[in-house]
Each structure stands twice: as C-alpha cells, then as structure tokens.
Design brief:
CATH architecture of the largest domain: 3-Layer(aba) Sandwich
Mean pLDDT: 89
CATH topology of the largest domain: Rossmann fold
CATH class of the largest domain: Alpha Beta
Helix content: 40-55%
Largest sheet: 7 strands, mixed
Structural class: alpha/beta
Oligomer: single chain
C-alpha cells in the first residue's frame, strides 16, 4: 500500500491541503493546534489527503489517519518522517500529544507516557527514563541542599516562575512563600522562548534569593510550562486549548510535587496576562482536587501600581534605568547596567512585542 501515497509538506499557503488537513483532524476528533511549524500529509493519486502529522518545536502533534485507511501502517510512515525531520533540526528529545485511546499505539512506536488529562490528551516522550531521570535529579539537588534528611512533617512549597526578568514582584512572591514553609522549591522556566535567556533568568533568581536560607532553585527542564506542555503560555491560543494545556502542565507538576513531598504551591495574582489568569484558575481547581494547597499572593505594588515583568521590559527597551532601579532587585539592576547585558537589551529593543498577551 505504501507506494500508493506521496508524502508532501503542507504549507500554510496551500489552501486546499490545509482545508483537507483541518477536515481530517476534525473527523478524527482532534482539535487543530494553531502552534504548528511543520506539517506533512500522505496524499493519494487524486491528491486527496489520507493521513497527516505536524511538529511544533520539539513536539509531534495533530496526527491522524483517515478512518477509511486505518490499518495500512500510515501512522508509522507519518511518525517516521516527523522523527527524521526533528532529528535533522537537532531535536532528539521528542514529545508528543495524542488522544487517550491512541496512547497505546504510540507506546508501541517507542513513546512513553508522562501525564494525561482523562478524556482529552496524553503527553508522551521518546526517552524511556527521561521524566524519571528528571525527578531523580530534583531529589539529588534537594538532598545536597539540605545536607540531612528533611523532617517528616515539614511543610514544603513550590513556586514556578519565568522571571523575564526577575523583578521586585518576583522577589516578593519568593519571600512570602519562603516565610510560609520550611523548604521552598523555586523552579525557573528553562525554555528559551523569552526575551531574557534562561541562563540569565536562572542566575538572577538564584542571586536574588540567595539570602533566603530555605530556598532552593531548580530548572523546569522541558517538563513544566515549556513549549512541549504549554505552548499557549508563549503563543496566543483559544481559551479551550489554554485550559487543556494548563491541566496537562499541572498533571506534570503533581508528579513533581509527589517526588519532592510538596504540599503547597504559591502563585502571584495575575491582573495582566490572560493566559496566566486562566492557568491560575485551572490550577487552583486541579490542586484542590489533588489535596494540595494553592496560595495566590497579591502582587507587590508601588506608586505606579502592580510591578510586572512586562513593564520592566518596557523600561529596559526605553533605556529608563532610573525607573528600572525602583522595580528590580539589586542583582537585576547590576546585570542590566553591565556590558554582559548588551545583547539582551538589543534583543528587547528590537522585539515587536515586549508585553505579555
């Protein structure tokens, strides 16, 4: 059967192919993701689409075979092509989304389940021990930090932040959370999808929290609020998609929380970003049903109102360092007035959009 079909890239400008792709996905009960950067189709002799699959960053998604052609091994062809394409662009650690009833099929193709939202979506990766290795690494970092066993009934908290860049608002959130628990895990979003690179964000969060003795910093890796689990955080998407990504991201967090005995999660109130606002709402519901406490900390404000990272990026873009000094910790101000920050400042200045959506 294989020779009867042609593999062809589906470009956004090919209206007929895009229409067919949308129809095929809809027929198979798959919600088309807006965030796709490479799509392919298997076409028959009449250039009718019989199977499709797409990529976004290091993920495979929106994969479907027409019901009339199932059982012909077409999904294997789609997956093989997409994996080869991903490897060609240097992505060897791959993730995919699939419907709950097809997860077993992808398991047979070498993918392993990380988390699922029942009835919606399963999140999988191509490394058998990828996620469990990440959990072990977090446990090792924690043991090294504590230098002794943690107390049995210790209250352990978590904060996840992008810190793009680290502001007095972030510092306030960490301070408040650290004061409420025995040990606070601060996770810095590792994905380099922000204007301030991860290496800088991580350094500023670590430096800016160094005086708080019960705070340990970690990377989220590709597992939390990354383009893999939660692309809507970085790109515009519909409320429905944002909600299912948020649920998935929180399922991943719950496994991390279990590995680290986390009992409480702290988030900053979100008056600015629609995405984060929806995320916080979903998170409060999901954590409560899992028996974890969710604390929403009011934003730190000054005479201009709530301090936000997007406002800070605007000040950096405009070169208003006098105003910047009042809104960021000393470590952030030192960095942005140093030579090392020049490339980052240029990137912020040349960005079309420095504010959150």
């Amino acid at each position: 059967m294989m020779s009867d079909y042609t593999v062809s890239r589906i470009l956004p400008t090919d209206k007929r192919a895009v229409r067919q792709m949308n129809a095929l996905l809809e027929n198979e009960g798959i919600e088309r993701d807006k965030n796709l950067d490479y799509s392919i189709g298997l076409f028959d002799d009449n250039y009718d689409l019989v199977a499709t699959g797409s990529c976004f960053a290091n993920t495979l998604r929106c994969m479907a075979v027409s019901s009339e052609h199932q059982g012909e091994g077409l999904m294997n062809q789609i997956i093989s092509h997409l994996i080869e394409f991903q490897y060609s662009r240097g992505n060897t650690s791959l993730f995919l989304y699939t419907k709950c009833n097809t997860a077993r099929f992808f398991g047979d193709l070498g993918f392993y389940e990380i988390a699922r939202v029942e009835g919606k979506v399963v999140f999988m990766e191509n490394r058998r021990t990828g996620f469990s290795d990440y959990l072990k690494r977090l446990q090792r970092e924690t043991s090294a930090f504590l230098e002794s066993e943690k107390e049995q009934d210790a209250k352990i908290g978590a904060v996840i932040m992008n810190a793009n860049p680290f502001t007095l608002g972030h510092r306030y959130l960490v301070e408040q959370a650290a004061a409420a628990v025995d040990l606070l895990h601060v996770f810095v979003v590792s994905e380099d999808a922000s204007l301030v690179p991860f290496s800088v964000r991580r350094q500023l969060v670590a430096e800016g929290s160094a005086d708080l003795p019960n705070v340990i910093c970690h990377e989220t890796g590709p597992y939390m609020i990354s383009n893999a689990t939660f692309p809507s955080y970085f790109l515009k998407d519909s409320d429905t998609v944002i909600r299912s990504h948020a649920k998935l991201d929180i399922q991943v967090f719950l496994r991390i929380a279990k590995a680290l005995s986390v009992t409480d999660r702290f988030v900053g109130e979100e008056p600015f970003s629609q995405v984060t606002g929806i995320y916080n709402q979903v998170m409060a519901e999901e954590l409560a049903s899992a028996g974890l406490n969710c604390h929403v900390i009011p934003r730190k404000a000054d005479e201009d109102g709530a301090i936000s990272a997007s406002e800070v990026r605007c000040l950096i873009r405009d070169g208003n360092f006098e105003a910047l000094k009042k809104k960021v910790p000393a470590c952030t101000f030192r960095y942005f007035t140093s030579e090392a920050a020049e490339p980052v400042i240029q990137k912020i200045r040349s960005a079309a959009e420095v504010r959150h959506y």
